[in-house]
Amino acid sequence: MPRRKKSHIAQDAGTPVDPDQIALWLNRNPDSPSARRLTALIREVMDGISARQTRPKELPRKILVINRRLRTYSATPALLVPRDLSEPLRATWLPTIGEGNDEPFAYGEFQFVLGVLRLAREDRLGRLRRCRHDEQWFFARLKRQVFCSQHCQQAHFRQTPTFKKYHADQMRSWRKLKKSDF
């Protein structure tokens, strides 16, 4: 069997973005136009994924809405100069700013859009969620994870009626015990 020639061009779609970086970026400035655009995209892609499973007839319309939002972002392929001549050339996508786009967007936002689409393709976008306690974005390591940290999980539990009743009973018995000691 003949050996395949090694390509002199390595292809990537920009630097892969870690899901935790997406959450961090969304939390850093949640009211910025870029974060609002990315949040809307995440919501629409999640809606499209759920429509695929529960309402298949709505899927073409959902995809149309997603593609309309994605038209905001345009890019051109480009070759990057290698740092070392022994490295292969790298092919990537660079955002095109100002050509038919309604609003300018930052290169970082473009990378995060690619990251969101990659998560959707890998069927992991549902794990990019908001914490039930403080509404911060996080990437869930476990399917059942709904809080961004143990602190939020405990703080949320302390606000439930069950815990409040348990804590009140504990404090009553503690005060009664303290009173009987004197």
Number of separate strands:
5
Spell out the helices and strands N to C. Answer: EHHHEEHEEHH
Per DSSP, what share of the residues sits in E-state strands of 2 or more residues? 5-15%
Placed side by side, the strands forming the largest sheet appear as 1-3-2
How many domains? The number is: 2
Helix fraction bin: 40-55%
SS content category: alpha+beta
Mean pLDDT over all positions: 83
Radius of gyration: 24 Å
Cα(first) to Cα(last) distance is: 91 Å
The biggest beta sheet reads: 3 strands, mixed
Q: Helical element count?
A: 6
Observed structural traits:
alpha+beta, about 180 residues, 2 domains, two-stranded antiparallel ribbon, 5 strands
Report on the structure:
Residues 4-11 have low confidence and may be disordered. With 182 residues, the protein is α+β, with helices and mostly antiparallel strands. Helix 2 packs parallel to helix 4. Strand 4 and strand 5 form a beta hairpin. It has 2 domains: 9-141, no CATH class; 149-182. The N and C termini lie far apart (91 Å). It is built from 6 helices and 5 strands. The longest helix is centred in the first third of the chain and has 22 residues, at 33-54. It has a 3-stranded mixed beta sheet, with no helix packed on it. A two-stranded antiparallel ribbon has the order 4-5. Helix content is 49%, strand content 12%. The protein has helices at 19-28, 33-54, 59-70, 107-121, 150-158, 161-181, and strands at residues 9-11, 75-80, 89-95, 128-130, 137-139.
